[in-house]
Write a structure and sequence with these properties.
Radius of gyration: 17 Å
Largest sheet: 9 strands, mixed
Structural class: mainly beta
Strand content: 35-45%
CATH topology of the largest domain: Immunoglobulin-like
Number of helices: 2
Number of strands: 18
Distance between the termini: 33 Å
Length: about 290
């Protein structure tokens, strides 16, 4: 897992892992093309359903600017995520496809603005990003068993972010916990307790980072999951519970999590800017206890 194309092989979890628990309505109660914002609650973010299958996304072609909550629903047979990238300098998805085919770091016109992290077949993940007007795309950087990245198999979907029509400004979800990402650590504003949480994530480091929240198997630590991810042999020592995909330096996002008491892991798989190794190799992983 130390060799990467564009941003690399991220979150290569086994498809047998269970999806994360959701506090939102069931996936089949919302049309695949739905973009909704309750007009009676003007401050609520737009809510967008993104359906992932092998190997494509189904999602609206445009969303309003401002806070946008991505409800990722995995209807495929493999693990999927919805990484959001902003294409600046007038670039299009055709330019993105060319960039994906190149080795080395991504060009400066690709901006990583978060999104819903990996989820297993049948599962859901929910994350919020603040999006400015412009050209964007959803991508899945997770590889198949053959080692080929899903984006290289066509799992790239462009969309437009347009100026919001409402005069009222939407607001990001109110968070009860804040998490800062740095080189190479996770810092929580307070210990996580059992229950529902909205976790605000800020990348305060000089290079991109992500957060993967793991429910650890009994007796396991975050380090065990990092070791397992190198070969993916045997049963995984943790279950993914969502998080926020790649965030550029200074970028922010949030995600929801329903936690029971027990041991959890925080881990980052972003390749390092200097040596290309996943950040967890540099120590960006942590085991925490939820009471």
């Amino acid at each position: 897992m130390h060799r990467f194309r564009l941003t690399g092989v991220v979150l290569t979890f086994a498809g047998a892992l269970a999806g994360c628990k959701s506090d939102r309505r069931p996936a089949d109660s919302q049309p695949a093309s739905a973009v909704s914002a309750d007009s009676s609650t003007a401050a609520a973010p737009a809510e967008v359903r993104v359906t992932a299958v092998d190997y494509r996304f189904e999602a609206p072609k445009s969303v309003p600017a401002g806070p946008v909550t991505i409800d990722l629903v995995n209807q495929g047979k493999e693990m999927h995520q919805a990484q959001i990238v902003k294409l600046e300098e007038g670039k299009t998805v055709a330019d993105l496809a060319k960039a994906l085919a190149q080795q080395g770091p991504p060009p400066s016109w690709i901006k990583f603005v978060g999104g819903a992290n990996g989820v297993a077949p049948g599962g859901e993940a929910h994350a919020t990003s603040v999006l400015e007007p412009g050209n964007y795309a959803y991508l899945c950087f997770i590889p198949s068993p053959d080692g080929k990245m899903h984006a290289a198999k066509g799992m790239v979907l462009p969309f437009q972010v347009t100026a919001a029509s409402s005069a009222a400004s939407a607001e990001a979800p109110t968070a009860d916990v804040t998490m800062k990402l740095t080189d190479y650590d996770f810092t929580l504003s307070q210990p996580l307790k059992a229950g529902h949480h909205t976790i605000a994530v800020e990348n305060a480091g000089p290079q991109p980072h992500e957060i993967v929240l793991l429910k650890l198997a009994p007796g396991k630590k975050a380090e065990d999951f990092g070791k397992w991810a190198e070969t993916m042999k045997g049963p995984p020592p943790a279950q993914p519970l969502g998080g926020v995909t790649f965030l550029d330096a200074g970028a922010r996002g949030s995600f929801t999590a329903d936690l029971a008491s027990g041991a959890y892991g925080l881990i980052c798989f972003v390749p390092d800017a200097k040596d290309g190794k996943p950040h967890f190799v540099h120590g960006m992983m942590k085991t925490i206890t939820v009471d």
